[in-house]
Amino acid sequence: MIITSIREEDKKRAAVSLDGEFFCLLYKGELRRLALKEGMELTAEQVFLIEETILKVRARNYCMHILERQSCSEKKVMEKLLRHRYSDKIAAYAVTYWKELGYIDDLAYAGNYISCHYMSDSYRRICEKLYQRGIASETVEQAWADFSENLKEPEEEYRIALKRTIEKKSRSLNLADTDDRNRMIRYLLGRGFPYREIVRELAEG
Asked: pLDDT tens-digit profile of 161-173?
């Protein structure tokens, strides 16, 4: 493999391309230590050593940095690694590494998200948010199933969520006014609550 280009990425790093394809970002000190230059031929063993001793270690550390700051789905972690100019191969390695250690767990992530939002958001809205975060539908379904087992009265909890949403929104609306009442209904429908439940709760309120 031939180093076809070494281009400055920023003040500290340079982008290295092999055979015309982007390979990785290396710090300028690493370039000097490895004595890498444009036109130089690298053996498969040399490429392997760069991946194993530099890129994979760095990707693991950056991945841990991401997870220490906030809980993320597997997809979001992967996206952050790719935006940071790690190759698909190296990013996938880092995600798998922490996934096997239990630090990346989409089922646990979905379960925590449901626990935090089920009182304020509808089932549909929560599912949509999780799908947007890259959680697979079967994982979301399993998370709901696990969560529901821990709720003695899930239907009552759902009605409490609807009631609290109405109370919060009604602070800025006059529900005795037809227009405001219709605005409330549209708002609740937009959050995924069923029309029949909305009408019943407003009538009882």
From this structure: 788 888 888 888 8
